[in-house]
Amino acid sequence: MPVRRWQAIKRLTHNKSRLQCSALEIARQAGWDDSVADIETRVRTAIAALEQSGYIERGNNMPHVYATGITVRNMDEARQRIASSSLFDKEEVENAVRIIKSLISQKYISRAQDAEAESRIDYLADILGLNKHEVVSAVGRMRQEGILGDTKDISAFMQDVGNERKAMHKLECFAKLEQYVLSNIPDDALRISYKQLNDKAVHDGLEESTEKHIRTLLYFLVVKNYTRKKEDGIQNLIISRQADMKNTLARFEKRLNICRFAIGWLYARAANAEGEAAKNGVVNFSVVELLNDLNAGNHSLFYNGEELKIEDIEEALLYLSKIGALKLEGGFLVLYNAMTINRKQMDNRVRYKQDDYRMLNEFYKQKIQQIHIVGEYANLMVENYDAALRYVHDYFNMDYRLFIDKYFKGDRAREIERNISPAKFQQLFNDLSEKQKAIIDDHASRCIVEHAVVVLFVAHWPQDREAARRACLYTSWPRCCCLKT
Length: 485
Description:
By secondary structure, the protein is of the alpha+beta class. The chain is built from 22 helices and 13 strands. The radius of gyration is 27 Å and the shape is globular.
């Protein structure tokens, strides 16, 4: 997987050392189409592997919001305003209509599915077959015409979280954990795993700490440039601060004070709401409104007399939303989320090597093992409940290799490294001769796939046509003739 991403990055950069583009653009350059599931996650995983091997260095994301709302009521109004606008010529009107139609559809789809209310510039260009710059230009002119808005309207759903006390308690728990994490990052870097960091926090008195909470916090801290994080295939972390300890903690304390004020301010407005808003527990507000009340009030939020900015409020609201202290819904975003990639290996002749893949291979190997481990737990729950509890206890408390040695002895240790169940493996491979098994087990030769398919095909066809089909799929030969019959 990183091989094709490395080739794509080489094509995108040419002789440049710096690249800013989205994960989708890299995927398309690498030749991936819509048949590949979860494209963005796969691209980011491959980029992390390339960074681990020293080919590239990933910088901070460079998101750009082009619009934050759709002001027209329906498609007819949008088409009429675009056609009558002097900002679009005849050729551009058709593209602008296609773009706003896609945006309006995406808005209502996201509402129906309770998904993120956003549309991405790169995806719009890809779906509509347009150049990215054409989409950016059309969106900018639609915002100028007033078809797309630049407002900051947000709705807070207070009943979905609970009462003010519950929201404040969640905030304080996360705040204590965040301060603990930040305070434990030395000036160079913190090298630790999620489990070790959580165990350490619980041992030091933060009893409500969980690995999930730590993942949520680290995600936020990385996105907002508090820290940088590198993670290998077995979830070992290297966490470093982006600023010195004093400035980092000062920024944390400022955000915490804003969050405390925002929770009290929103619940006070919810208590004074009337009609349908009071019944549903929905508070509509704007970031500017919250900012003005904060700056106007006599709140000792700062130690140097500086005033708050829009960005400070947005960061605090994002934090409250991520930790689950508030449920917020904002305007419909039209954005472009670019990654910054600094290419360190400038020689285009250098290829991604087998040794570079070792760490990623270990990661996928462990993912396969995890599936078998969960399956074993399910079997134990049916057969012996007490044994299943001991199994779970050992999994979370023993060293991983010792756990494997204890519960998967002998041939079973090899079984859990295969991406197929033991029963299915026996069905496909049990009747092969020694020479045929040698071909199947050959992982070193470069041109072995077709030989392996032929071996399995001959072994099962025509007596067991279904097994022959599965054999071809298992060995990644989907065009085998037996699949067409």
